[in-house]
Amino acid sequence: MRTYTPAEAAQRSGFSIDTLRYYEREGILAPVARTSGGRRVYSDSDLCTLDFLRCLRDAGMPIERLRRYGELCRDPDTIAERVELLREHAVAVQEQIDQLRRWQARVGEKLSWYERHLDQT
Amino acid sequence: MRTYTPAEAAQRSGFSIDTLRYYEREGILAPVARTSGGRRVYSDSDLCTLDFLRCLRDAGMPIERLRRYGELCRDPDTIAERVELLREHAVAVQEQIDQLRRWQARVGEKLSWYERHLDQT
DNA sequence: ATTCAACCTGGAGTGCGCTCCAGGTCAACC
DNA sequence: GGTTGACCTGGAGCGCACTCCAGGTTGAAT
Hints:
Two copies of one chain form a homodimer. Chain A has helices at 6-13, 17-25, 44-58, 63-73, 79-119, and strands at 3-4, 33-34, 40-43. Chain A is mainly alpha-helical. Chain A has a single domain (3-120), classed as Multidrug-efflux Transporter Regulator, Chain: A, Domain 2, CATH 1.10.1660. In chain A, helix 4 runs antiparallel to helix 5. Chain A starts with a strand and ends with a helix. The A-B interface holds A 52, 55, 58-59, 79-80, 82-83, 86-87, 89-90, 93-94, 96-97, 99-101, 103-104, 106-108, 110-111, 114-115, 117-118 and B 52, 55, 58-59, 79-80, 82-83, 86-87, 89-90, 93-94, 96-97, 99-101, 103-104, 106-108, 110-111, 114-115, 117-118. Chain A binds a DNA duplex (30 and 30 nucleotides) through residues 5-7, 16-19, 21-22, 35, 37-40, 57, 62-64.
């Protein structure tokens, strides 16, 4: 049950210190514990949350939805809502994958066309 | 070999009229033909270019690279460079797909965990 | 006791990719 | 010849997601 300084939390989560503060201000992350002097002290649980948030961000979830998810996680009786939110985003992710696949197909064609062109010169 | 008004070009390409002008200003799109009165007249070839640009944008290619691609297309002796640019972006797209797949796996796990939780209540 | 890096706050600034606006022009139609 | 709606330009504004800044505080190490 160790704790982490802001710099450590940033390093481990992959967010910048500024972003960590920003997420807290925005209510995405629950208020982080403080020392008597007012410095933030991140817990293992905070780090775990941050890791999942990182994952959601990397999958393109917008801040607004991230906030919603963060809020839901603070209330234990919201599992159904969380599931719904994740499912919704899963649909978006699948669509994005499909689109990228179509892109690959199209660009693959264009590339082989270009290559035939190059060979002939 | 028909032509298109700005409104038609926008409708067919999926870009807004403002975006079409913006792309032209930015040199992404070559200067479009004009009527004597100064109105733009898009050709089939413009539409075709726009369609491919749309495709590149949808695959997340940044404006800067789009501009580069647009410039290269105006010089016929740049096929090798175009191929290189597209290949580079293809790598980025593949990485994005891989990342989204990992996301799916992770969220899939979380979802089934949540669902077991829901069932037990 | 002093130093100094790391931290704090509120608020301003940034980069991207558009999007909107004011004020004017053009051209098809009645 | 007048109306009307699509179009023109240069430039300002916007939304997102941070990122940076000034000016001040904290606390571990010397």
